Structures are given as structure tokens and as C-alpha cells.
């Protein structure tokens, strides 16, 4: 029940109990004094409550509660017990009232004008005066033990850009029914196309080497390279490996690179073709998307290496597009398992597509860690059940999507930057989550926290998230 000046204030009623165990070696009656001290920063407002009770133990009854007959105490004792219960209720009321007082004072001291943005980036969410104060403090991390199940209705926020962007992408605005109840979701691990033998996919996608023209190197990792080139006069992105790559990594490269084979959705990027003339250096060819990798694009915007204006509407719109792509994968019974900004690309008109995670470990080594096995995993995007039990389901993708929302609102800051990967499961198990980003509206942060609920069945479904984000996007446009 301790509430220190730097700790978290309870947002709901909390109770405590004191157990005094009898040894059973003798019969005795002991007076117990309970001293309750409630204080705030203003010492004059300290409240002290003292009350007594009798602890009775009987010989031969140890380590258990003793139920005495009603006539044992007599009428005066009954009155004393009633007084004790009344005092306990009063004490709890004082604690809760004091906590509320402290919390209100802290809220009043918060700045309600636009906060300083990450790395002085001008393209962040704006945070004007709220209709109600923020519900989460400004600490390093937030807890979600007492989150309410129903998100607040979105309110309009000022932005630096009008909704002209919605006109360019009105073709993907779809209406989905969001059920009022969260449905129970099966915890059986779902299909993963990376686990299937890619040989049949490769044979279908194989084209002659003469059809592919490599032009210039764009990115290079430890064992992979990405080129810009041409395929039948079409500008494409070409992924390949280095000569030193092991057979295991080569097989992983082909399995992950062709995982989207056979899928057709405007928010999913599929591989165009494969060339296997040199089996140790296969070529995977993809459509070239204007601005390239979403994470690199947002980081460049944050670091002012790219002068593109990214408004609140655009970022929410990106989230909706990623969600639509993820919904399509789930409709095909595919659990993506690695949803992150690094595994998406963005076009000139801010159209976003989910890609495979081929070469992601190589090009984004700080996002993957090996814990307990030889496989590198996106530890800080993974749900608790994935970390502990290696269980992957639709709700684990929902968790990762919550981290993607956090990435978008921070222009791709690194999540849990100061948490050791080996401590992530303990960190999440104790209820800690990513804190509310600077300038992020309360309503959007609420969506993230619902995605990070510990019980997978309590997390929202994708159609519920889509309905809410569409409503939030509409509120932004209506305000402008």
C-alpha cells in the first residue's frame, strides 16, 4: 500500500490483509495495535489511524484460523469487533482519497501545451490541452494492471496537415463490424509459411538470369545485399546473399523470401520472381516501393535526414494499412510472427505494404536477440506467451501490432531500449509496458495498451482495432 513520491498511484481500490498465525503450543489472548499512517507532500495533511483488536489462539490449533462461537465474546466484544471493521473501512477510504488527491495534484502540474518532441522532430503527434488529464504518468514504463476494457472515444487533435492524404487512399477505406465482446481465441499455434519446404514455391517463381538486370547496391549486411535493378524494364529491388553464407542461413533466406508467395493484397508485398542459376547466391526480386523500408524512412524523418512532412493523419493512416495487411494474412490462417516497422515498405503517396522478413536479422541486428536457442528472435516485439512458451497465435500478432503503433508514434525509436533481452519476460510478467510516447494522444496510447494485455483472450481482435483507428482517423480529419 506504500505510495512514494516517485511511485505509481493506484487507480482502483486496493485491499490488504494481515495474517497472524497461531503456533498451537498454548492458549493466549494478545492485544494487537494496528497503526495506519497516510501522508502527502504537505505534512500538515498527514492522517494517522490507530485501532486495536484481540488475537486469540487456542492450544492445539496451529497455523489455522479459529472460528469462535458468537457467545464467546459477549455483547461488548461484538461491539468492539464492529468498531474495528468500521475503522478498517474508514482507513481504506482515507488511503484512496489521499491517493486521488496526490494524483490530481500531479495532473494539474502537467504541461498541457505541446511537449518537446523526440530529437526535436517536427512531424510528431501534437498534444493540445486534453478534455481530461492523461491517465498514465511520465515514468520510464507504465503498468496495465487496472486498465479499463472500453477505450475512450477519440477526440480531435490539431495537426500540421489537412486530410488531403485521405483522398489519395480512399480506395482502401473498408468498413468492418467491431463486435462489442472480445471473442475467445484459440491458443493453438497457427500456420507459418516459413516452415514449409520452399522448393515448390521456388520452382514456380524461377526465371532466367537474363531477365534480371542488377544496377546499384543499396544496402549491405553481414551475409546479405540489396540491389536496385530492372526486371522486364520494371524497376525492382533485388535481394541476394554473400558467398560466405552458411547452408542454414541460405535455406532461411529462401524460406523467408518466398513466404508471401500466392498472396494478393494491396497492403502485402509479394515476391515477383527468383533466379537460382547460382545456388549459393540466389536472387529474389520484389517490386520497388518509392520510399523504401518504413523504419529507415521514419528514422530519417526524425533525424532530419529526410524533409518529408509526416503528419498525425499520415501516421494513423499507415497504421490502418498495416492492420489491413495483417488482417489479410490472418484470413489465410497465417501467423506473421515478426510484425514490425522494419518489415514494411512505404511508397511515394505513403501507401504501406507488409513484406517478408528476409534479411531483417542481417540489416537490423539490434532488433533481434538469441535467448536459449540458436534462433534470433524479435524479443522486444514478442508477446509474453511467445517469450515464455514459444507460442504464436493471432493474439501474439496483435501484441506486436501494438509495438508497431508505438514505433509510428515515436518515429521508430527503439522499444525497451534500456531493458536487457534476458529480462524481458520478467519485465512483462510483472506488468510493465512501453510508456506513453511524448506527444501521443491518450486515445492512441490506450489502443496500444489493450494490445499488450497479458491474457491473449483479452486482447482486441484486428477488426475491433480497425474500427477504432478508422474512427480516430475520421475524428482527426473532421477537426481539420
UniProtKB/TrEMBL annotation:
A Pfam entry, by short name: WIF
Membrane topology: Single-pass membrane protein
Reaction it catalyzes: L-tyrosyl-[protein] + ATP = O-phospho-L-tyrosyl-[protein] + ADP + H(+)
Gene3D superfamilies recorded: Phosphorylase Kinase, domain 1, Transferase(Phosphotransferase) domain 1, Wnt, WIF domain
Keyword list, A-Z: ATP-binding, Glycoprotein, Kinase, Membrane, Nucleotide-binding, Receptor, Signal, Transferase, Transmembrane, Transmembrane helix, Tyrosine-protein kinase
Record-annotated Protein kinase domain positions: 212-473
Subcellular localization: Cell membrane
Primary site of residence: membrane
Keyword Transmembrane recorded: yes
Biological processes, Gene Ontology terms: cell development; neuron differentiation; positive regulation of cellular component organization; regulation of developmental process
Membrane-spanning residues: 79-102
Coiled coil: none
Any one GO molecular function term: transmembrane receptor protein tyrosine kinase activity
PANTHER family, per database record: TYROSINE-PROTEIN KINASE RECEPTOR (PTHR24416), TYROSINE-PROTEIN KINASE RYK (PTHR24416:SF349)
Protein name per Swiss-Prot or TrEMBL: Tyrosine-protein kinase RYK
Taxonomic source organism: Hypothenemus hampei
